[in-house]
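Run log // design_07
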């Protein structure tokens, strides 16, 4: 047990036995430490939110001080009360935490990897098209051929290839939505 913990424990025991001065001294000593813990754990709460949590911790200590076992170390009990109040504040705040993305730009950068499910899904949709439409979609959209190249190979005008491509893609969208007519 550290000197600080021994002093705080003695003050809280005296306070629980009715010594008001000891209780005021106890609260005066623990409050800055608790405020530091709340600031460290609840950075995203902002200064006002952090101070609200500190006040909630002090109220919880006051109302629940009888639950502290006088023979047990005081600091773990204080830290647990503080931690729970910070968690409660995050729960009340909801699931969103707003952090500037610029702070994480280096950590978030990832290698581009091919999406294997997209290829499989595309193949399933293309397989449901007629042969000519499927060939046009594969050639232009997947293989990167120009509409002029595809038109020359299929004996179609470039405009006709674009129209057929547009219609095929629209039909694939309908199939994907389950609205195929």
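design_07 sequence
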């Amino acid at each position: 047990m550290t000197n600080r913990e021994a002093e705080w424990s003695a003050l809280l025991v005296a306070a629980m036995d009715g010594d008001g001065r000891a209780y005021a001294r106890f609260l005066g000593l623990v409050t800055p430490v608790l405020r530091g813990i709340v600031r460290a754990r609840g950075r995203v709460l902002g200064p006002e939110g952090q101070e609200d949590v500190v006040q909630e911790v002090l109220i919880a200590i006051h109302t629940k001080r009888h639950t502290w076992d006088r023979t047990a170390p005081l600091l773990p009990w204080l830290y647990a009360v503080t931690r729970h109040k910070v968690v409660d504040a995050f729960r009340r705040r909801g699931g969103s935490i707003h952090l500037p993305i610029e702070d994480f730009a280096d950590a978030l950068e990832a290698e581009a990897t091919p999406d294997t499910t997209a290829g499989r899904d595309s193949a399933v949709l293309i397989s449901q098209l007629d042969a000519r439409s499927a060939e046009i979609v594969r050639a232009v959209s997947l293989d990167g051929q120009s509409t002029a190249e595809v038109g020359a190979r299929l004996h179609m005008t470039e405009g006709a290839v674009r129209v057929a491509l547009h219609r095929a893609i629209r039909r694939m969208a309908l199939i994907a939505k389950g609205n195929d007519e």
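The two ends are 77 Å apart (CA to CA).
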